[in-house]
């Protein structure tokens, strides 16, 4: 029978040498786990001797406790009379700010474009979460250039052609898609919405576009599969490959069995990017909650002029997530090994130059995604649309040998059309789905797709393109100087 | 005999299922018309059970009621003792702001250039009207580039030539014009001035330049014709072609019979542009008047997180105006059909690339207008002056085969001179005439033309050009880098 | 014997039909002169019936009254007992502001560069004067580009060469100059300092550089000649040629007789530029003094919506000054005529393109000044340093056939060095001498020249150039892209 | 026996004709030295009759007094009872500001990058010191371009290569270095920290990188040598060569004997740059302390409109330091002479163009540093990374003939990697070490190096470079247009 524990009992174990926490009214002794916490020991110690339910639920799905803690970690349950107090947890100033913003957000029918949704999302999530989502590497040059580069590509619109009927649908990797876009992989969807990535699955199903699910999604692969609108709705599986081939193979086979239709191997994350905005967010929180927690533990934070890097998490969220990943993947070994493990088509996500696009074609993969990880990995990687343009100019043959997708900063129908004119088969959007989920849930995602559909059809008509195959390279002109004004 | 109705009676019919409105002291039952209102049902429902005279008169000319409502729509007249109350309509805060600004506007003799007038106009019209006039598509890149592109073209001024005598007059499509400019087509002139486009007709007549009148002008074609200063004053007719050829032919023949001298077919509006500034203006008004009206009808506007696009007008003003237009015009069918319908010279308005300029020459039309609809249609269409420059560089022969006009962002004599040096026969200005009409009426339009005349003569002299034919391509140099500083 | 008049008598003549004014205690009837006043009738009517001494003295030298008014214009003198009241003229708010700024200006030894002096000058003169000095044409693109263009030219500094001894002196048109710069022509020097351009003469003489004096200088040619430090100090004469050859010839011969050493014919002012900053300044003053004067005359200024250009001076200060100038000068007639009138070397001021530089060389003149009149004439004329660079690239032979000078935006020793590397013999500075004179008088001008000397020597050494002839085209590199950052 | 003097006695000698000062409780008569003070007589007169210990200690090391003053300059010692008062010296507002900022600076473990440290340093030193450190010549164009130029160079990152093991170490001039960077020479380290440059020596020793020590370091060569972590830690000696060869030779031989491993001759400082930010700093101080001192001496500072340059120090800090240096060094004489004086390898610091890099290779020196002295000497010298890129493109052979280093604006690992890809053997950083020393002392310098190590390894991995020799020119692309957005 399970032991009954009081909050007072728990509060006696609030140091690194004996650390208990409360999660969903159960008490766990996490002392031995503290040094192994992926997000750094500090994050967990902040809740030592206290209720960690809220922080836990923000990023974890239910299975994590069983998977990560030892069987004997469960100390007991809160006494019944104390449980009610959990519901009256004090709200932080940040919580109050968010609640107030949620009440004041504009109705969904006043949202005109994707940036409108982004600005709502920025207000209704914590500053720390938004820093994690929206930030890029170091000075965020590639992050910014991904967006700004579009303004160098102008259209050459034609007139006096029939465009009353205009069809933006296409075939992607053999699957029909109502639009030439797909929902790209993003991590930790619970930070956006309690239903996490399953909201994306449902919205994509309803409107007929493909979703790519991340290894780091909050929703498990099986949750996503069972959230489909119908059984033929295509989902793709994005893989961060672990160094341990056995672990990786198990994950891949699990996805294939569940019914995922393609395997997207991320190749641009052999090291985690230096995302300073994300790193800096931990110092913000120190000013209020964390600092309080640390002080309670009798430690001083006054260590200035001392070199003590271990005290700070310099990996950030992404560093924690990528721990244990394979930094020795190669063209020669990894691709053939993948082929031996799965029958799913293979797509390489994170190609950043023409040379590697050619190597990909030679390696026999089925597709590539020109991507710099949304400006979150290699700082000063070229913007995706520029790499796509270089590939079109230097090696147009590659577009015949595999399907080329692209992501990075796409927010407008015109931007998608520019990529399609240059030869992309489809365009991935990541952050916009996180923002929509955070701001308006599943309906926000539906709205996001509808906005893109409306923009795509309007601008195809104005270009005099009545279907996707009418979009040709000669309809786009790269004009440096115009972009500068 | 017509029935007498009280305001109280009218106010009992204020829902979509029974909607009466008062216009010019008459009561109409518009219930069956509500769903067909071009500007969206919401706009009309806002006045359900109330006096709509002011809003109606802002955009409609007198004939509209007869043309659009059924015979039995007229319910009756206001009782005489209630009519006086119409004159004491409450003024909104916006009305008061405008009145105050009108009193404080600078005297016309302190206006130095066209931008001065624009800034007056911005103050003396409603925010909604100014958003409709001044806005462009989406992020307004083409709108901005139309203007900024001029700064890439510098002059090569010559010295020591006779320029005491300097003549800026020219011949456009066979008609003498005192200046190498014309007033281009603009919509809904009543938003600017009660006399709408007839003010433009008179001012153009007085100063000897051509006016092109829009299908969507508030003043009817016959009103414009009868406003001419003398019977040989040339007017051009701009056509938005309806899908129904019969309707279109009737309109064209009517214009020709009235005495219009050219037919300008708009070819860049097969779909209406995504003009977000215009769309967003409806949300501003919701914050005050419209919201109030909606609430009175017992509906809640709290629909956040619900997908309900039908509730919002996503077409905007332009979408409403272009409804029913022909989206299947072609080079092969439309041009010959036009020739069969009219003897007026044909000009294509909205050519956006060299290829279509060549097709136009081959199609045998009399002129083209290089135009992107003032940045209001295809976002990221190239700025007009750049397309003109490309045509000059790549296909100078086109200038021999038809007359080339250009519009888009012209505000200065120097900008007009740059286009003329590159081969344009004349330059169209649209918004400046709206702004002048709104700010100072007919005298404002006269002033606008005089300002341009003064700038043109000053700068022709400083270039050492004593007549229009002295303006040559070698007098303009495109220097990218200078524009960037 | 001269009549005695009271202030009361004068105040009875304050309309356009009978206009008396007081200047230096004398009363003049200027009724017949009012319509011919170069600055517009309004300016003079503002002082109708009042004392105009202060306004008169600001811009006029003593001889003007005799030259312009008829003999019988002198009505009489102020009664002695009323004269003292002239000294107690009320100070305007602007006067008080200027006085206060003059007290607070930094000591001259804290001035480090020419822009420091400019910012002092901006504070210690009236806003109207500063607008006249500092403004350019229309949107002031060429004005700004003159300065910004320098930042496209970088140096290629050499090392390990002897530069302990470094000599910045040179020979200009046969005259020794201690520095490769000269004081260029500027108008209305009395606005800067009571001693006007004679301060420039003295400072240039002391430090050994050439002064070019303007036709529109406040100091007369003979005043300047007699202000020289020694009789061999070279002065140049700048000519605005009148349409009447006889008048022009008299002026030229007078200058030659007085001892001027060169004739600089301005060729870029066949029409006066559209200087809106200058024009707008008259509206500022209307808000206080002028408006008051107009109202006293019983006229209303409420003429909005009326076209009444005659009411406003659209020529501005420059238009007034250039009235009557020759707008029909030609290469074929004007240059030979000049040669027939004078033996002074001839320099053309205002060459703006390579073609005209070549024509100048063929016409046999002795020098040209590449200049766009400081951005005050043709808007969008290329910046001077760019025209110089084009001449160097396209027609280096011209530098052998005549001396090439340049002006326009030069404020730094580095900028002067860039022009010298590209082949200029000397660089003219205009506004800096006005600013220095206004801010600190003759000492300010001396300081200006010393600052340039110090910058020139420092940077010649850092370039490893020990004399002017060491400055070569290969020491300057035009790098567009750097200038953009 | 030494005389006892009271503070009252000292205060009687507070004019230029009899000037006593107190330093470390001793009284000196510096009357004859005042006109020779390298920083200008004003600085020293400010302390006439007062205690100058604090100001003295800020910039001077202990040996200066003996070296510069005559033996009889020592007047006596403070009476014992007055010494204690020295400790109670009043703090200026600036001192108080700095103390407050020091207390509030962030703990070192919250520092993420080098700019973070710079912004701390800006707060915790005097404004005058920061102006001296951070400023450049004139308008600081080259200073700014040094940094901005990096943003024109993008990476071409590769994927699917083994990078688990990643080694950023290299060999520089035969010495192993843990990172491809070195600490460059900087002056007056005592302004940053009491232990001055010895902190840099220790930190570099601990982390295995080379330090180059300046002729103008506050720490003497022997202090630095004895601060090494171990006897084989390599130090380089930077030389400002005096005009007197004998003096220079003595200095070089002294360094060689002490154990310095290379001689870095500065060649870009034949004249001192016109550093206006540094010059202007003296006027700031006049507003408080200095002015007060001057006034006490009975002099008025009201000299406006007077030319009195001698009153102001127009050389600035750098001018004072460079006095007496050799401005007649040549390729032909100076390099062979250096070879005759020392066996140390010779490096030329301050090469600014391809031509001089070639001359250096021909002269047989061992290395060059492409440098413009951090934008502090020749204004409009090209940014270092651009000169490096030109050398790579035009004369790749030079990289085979000597080692090429580069400095100027480097703050990020990515910037260092760009230079290495282009062929640089190592990158020098100067100001960052000053800033780190001022903000956090030796630990700050250690942190600085660790930050760079972390950035270098992260970005080498993301580039797929596992060692320094994997960095190739084809991994960097210069893309002008991207930098402009």
UniProtKB/TrEMBL annotation, chains A, B, C, D:
Transmembrane segments: none annotated. The keyword Metal-binding applies. It comes from the Eukaryota. It is an enzyme of class 1 (oxidoreductase). Its EC number is 1.1.2.3. It catalyses: (S)-lactate + 2 Fe(III)-[cytochrome c] = 2 Fe(II)-[cytochrome c] + pyruvate + 2 H(+). One of its GO terms (biological process) is lactate metabolic process. SMART domains: Cyt-b5. One of its GO terms (cellular component) is mitochondrial intermembrane space. SUPFAM superfamilies: Cytochrome b5-like heme/steroid binding domain, FMN-linked oxidoreductases. Pfam families: Cyt-b5, FMN_dh. Keywords: Flavoprotein, FMN, Heme, Iron, Metal-binding, Mitochondrion, Oxidoreductase. The keyword Heme applies. Its cofactor is heme b; FMN. InterPro entries: Aldolase_TIM (IPR013785), Cyt_B5-like_heme/steroid-bd (IPR001199), Cyt_B5-like_heme/steroid_sf (IPR036400), Cyt_B5_heme-BS (IPR018506), FMN-dep_DH (IPR000262), FMN_HAD (IPR037396), FMN_hydac_DH_AS (IPR008259). GO terms for molecular function: heme binding; L-lactate dehydrogenase (cytochrome) activity; metal ion binding. Its main location: mitochondrion. Residues 2-79 form the Cytochrome b5 heme-binding domain. Residues 106-481 form the FMN hydroxy acid dehydrogenase domain. Belongs to the cytochrome b5 family. In the N-terminal section; belongs to the cytochrome b5 family. Homotetramer. This is L-lactate dehydrogenase (cytochrome). The lineage of its organism: Eukaryota, Fungi, Dikarya, Basidiomycota, Agaricomycotina.
């Amino acid at each position: 029978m399970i032991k009954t524990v009081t909050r007072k009992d728990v509060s006696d174990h609030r140091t690194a040498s004996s650390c208990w926490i409360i999660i969903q009214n159960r008490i766990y002794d996490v002392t031995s786990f503290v040094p192994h916490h992926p997000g750094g020991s500090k994050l967990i110690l902040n809740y030592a001797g206290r209720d960690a339910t809220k922080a836990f639920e923000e990023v974890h799905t239910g299975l994590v406790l069983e998977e990560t803690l030892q069987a004997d970690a469960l100390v007991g349950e809160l006494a019944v009379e104390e449980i009610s107090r959990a519901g009256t947890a004090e709200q932080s100033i940040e919580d109050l700010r968010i609640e107030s913003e949620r009440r004041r957000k504009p109705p969904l029918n006043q949202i005109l474009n994707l940036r409108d949704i982004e600005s709502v999302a920025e207000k209704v999530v914590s500053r720390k979460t938004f820093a994690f989502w929206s930030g890029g590497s170091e000075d965020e040059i590639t992050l910014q250039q991904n967006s700004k580069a579009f303004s160098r590509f102008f259209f050459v619109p034609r007139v006096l052609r029939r465009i009353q009927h205009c069809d933006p649908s296409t075939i992607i990797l053999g699957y029909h898609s109502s639009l030439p876009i797909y929902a790209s992989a993003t991590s930790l969807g619970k930070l956006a919405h309690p239903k996490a990535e399953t909201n994306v699955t449902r919205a994509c199903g309803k409107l007929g576009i493909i979703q790519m699910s991340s290894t780091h999604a909050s929703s498990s692969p099986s949750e996503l599969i069972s959230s489909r609108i119908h059984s033929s709705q295509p989902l793709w599986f994005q893989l961060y490959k672990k160094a341990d081939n056995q672990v990786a193979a198990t994950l891949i086979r699990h996805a294939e069995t569940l019914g995922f239709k393609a395997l997207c191997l991320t190749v641009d994350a052999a090291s985690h990017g230096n995302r300073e905005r994300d790193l800096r967010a931990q110092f913000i929180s120190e000013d209020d909650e964390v600092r309080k927690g640390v002080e309670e533990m009798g430690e001083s934070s006054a260590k200035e002029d001392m070199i003590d890097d271990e005290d700070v998490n310099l990996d950030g969220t992404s560093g924690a997530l990528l721990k244990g990943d394979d930094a020795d993947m190669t063209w020669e070994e990894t691709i053939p090994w993948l082929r031996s493990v799965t029958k799913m088509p293979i797509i390489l996500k994170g190609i950043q130059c023409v040379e590697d696009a050619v190597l990909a074609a030679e390696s026999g993969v089925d597709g590539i995604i020109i991507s710099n990880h949304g400006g979150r990995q290699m700082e000063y990687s070229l913007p995706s649309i520029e790499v796509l343009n270089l590939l079109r100019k230097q090696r147009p043959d590659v577009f015949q040998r595999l399907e080329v997708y692209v992501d990075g900063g796409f927010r407008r129908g015109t931007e998608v059309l520019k990529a399609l004119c240059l030869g992309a088969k489809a365009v991935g959007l990541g952050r916009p789905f996180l923002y929509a989920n955070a701001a308006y849930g599943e309906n926000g995602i539906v709205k996001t797709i509808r906005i893109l559909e409306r923009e795509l059809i309007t601008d195809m008509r104005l270009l005099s393109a009545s279907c996707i195959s009418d979009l040709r390279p000669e309809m786009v002109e790269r004009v440096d100087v115009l972009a500068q004004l």
